[in-house]
Amino acid sequence: MIDITQLLILGAVVALGYFVFNGSRHDPREPPMVTSGIPILGHMFGMLWHGVGHWGNQAKKHPEQPIITLDMFLTKFYVITSPDLMQAVQRNAKTLSFEPLLLFGARNISGISNPKTLDILKEIDAGGQGLGSKIMHAMTPTLVGKPLDLMNIQMIRLIQPFIEKLGETSTFDLYEWCKDATMAASTEATYGPMNPYKDKKIQDAWWDFETGLGVLIANTLPWLTARKPWKGRQKVADAILKYLQEGGQEHGSELTNVRLKVSMEGGLTLEEYSKLEVGMLIAFVSNTVPAMFWCLFDLYDRQKLLGEIRKEIEANAIVVAADGTHSIDLTAIREQCPLLLSTFQEILRTRSNSSPTRLVTKDTLLADKYLLKAGNTVSMPSIPMSQRQEVWGETAGEFDERRYMNSGEKKDSRRAGGFLTFGLSPTICPGRHFASSEILLLVAMVILRYDISPVGGVWKEPAKDTSSMVSIMGPIKEKFRVNASPRKEYAGVKWGFHVEEGKGQFPLVIG
Ligand code: HEM
Fold it and tell me: Which residues make up the binding site for heme (predicted)?
């Protein structure tokens, strides 16, 4: 039986197919076509059962092929698993481009429908005015250095009450707690004190939108076929519009103000900008929440490693004030806790299911060998890449918390280009430093102050929501109930955070 989540995936693939449709036949110079059992619709059904994991599964069935073609009915997917071909994709960034996906997002995720506006947002090479990518580029400098640390200062101020509450709560859902903490901290750090998401009803409406995106994205009579996420999107867009009309942005972050300025200069209306903002929050929370959850899960599940990391933070990243307050220092977490940072990246490597995607905007001969035809999609699934020994060495299939440590007991065993959790250059996640600050500060304080154990006593992986269209970090689809108890080592201690302005950046690996 096909269930609703599988229909969601189907809707998304059909939508992308229509978006890029070129109706072309297979050319013998294209990468070898692999078929699955059922003619024509086989790969569509594969997607229904396995989500985006289907690409990786197909690639694994053909290990001798560095690139394969999957016929997805209205479009073709070229699936790459070879590091050399990934580098060839990077060399052809002009014709294998991420940019058209921004327009797809504006139309199918944010619901912008005015053809004139879509033309403004469309990439310049396709005859548009390129506003979509101008907005993205304008954000990048606001997510490093001083503006980032100003956001970090707000973020931790808002996250700490959630950590304090753990001492008072008995059994709770750890995933829901990560959601609430991330949502509160990320939105207020961005939008300032008039943050429209302060209202729980707006938060709930946004989650209706996010979790129902698989149907909404098909953009086919959405008020009928995807009523709940469609209504949720409108409700949040209205709240953002009200925030802007009341001048809330004047107290918001540089990130918010830069996006607004570029959008207004580019010719968007406030209503259209508000709709784009609803989609923007996906970047802020949809990956951060599950990443935070898996960091806590993987650390508490490894008691020996947990003990070592606690010691590292205690030795290097706690400042004790004259009144006894213990503060966790962000700069020291970045620069003097190599085991924590390495473990964090290994959790991202082993838990993520990213698949950097590019659209072929012009016929391209990849590595002088494979013809990629315009209108089709290139996908580079991280799972087969994260298991390749030539990329990660003999321990590719193992969890190695010291993999990214450059000195002392462990050599650096990673190879350039294999770490795809934050995307593939030149499209690399600009929010990775903010996400890392948020996750690592929270994790550092929680593990020092609390012991956490799951109800039932076993850290058994909860089922993942493989149908998510927007998260590559394995969001879960069931409750995960735990108990937290304050550690006696810190009984009666007052806690805080310390963030120094102006340094904001992590030494992270990127693909
Ligand atoms: C653990 C958390 C996060 C992960 C794993 C993650 C991952 C990614 C990935 C894989 C991409 C590239 C997509 C592709 O190539 O197909 C991306 C893009 C992006 N991310 Fe993140 N992200 C995270 C958190 C954030 C945060 C907190 C923000 C905002 C502050 C953010 C903002 C963005 C934006 C704006 C883009 C689009 C970049 C562009 O179009 O050039 N991300 N992210």
Answer: 429
The answer to whether 197 touches 501, Cβ cutoff 8 Å, is no
Ligand 1 neighbourhood includes 422 CB (under 6 angstroms): yes
Which ligand 1 atom is at minimum distance from the Cα of 473?
5
Residue 283 near ligand 1, beta carbon < 6 Å: yes
Q: Is 254 helix (H, G, I), strand (E, B) or coil?
A: helix
Please report the domains of the chain, with CATH numbers, ordered by start residue.
1-79 (no CATH), 125-498 (1.10.630.10)
* Residue 258 CB neighbours (<10 A): 17
Residue 480 Cα to ligand 1 middle (Å): 26
State the 10-residue block means of pLDDT for the chain, 511 residues long: 49 58 74 80 71 76 90 85 91 94 93 96 94 95 90 91 88 96 95 97 96 84 92 98 98 96 97 96 95 98 98 97 95 94 96 91 96 94 81 89 74 61 90 94 97 95 85 92 96 91 70 71
Nearest 5°: phi and psi at 59?
Answer: -60, -40
